[in-house]
Amino acid sequence: MKLPGFGWLAGGHDRQLAATTYAGCESATERAARKRRTTHRTSGADKAAARGQAWEEADRNRERRRR
What we know:
The protein is built from two helices and no strands. It is mainly α.
């Protein structure tokens, strides 16, 4: 028995849906990869900034000890 309006539940037309309904949309896989790359870049930048700050403070302390 087929119910009108519920044909999409039968399946088998995933490629058609992907080509029409979801064309141009970011997939969940692509979104996860993008977020992973963004997080990776940001965490690397945060670590580098923290190292730079620590070096600068140590350098300042060395200069103070010289005087």
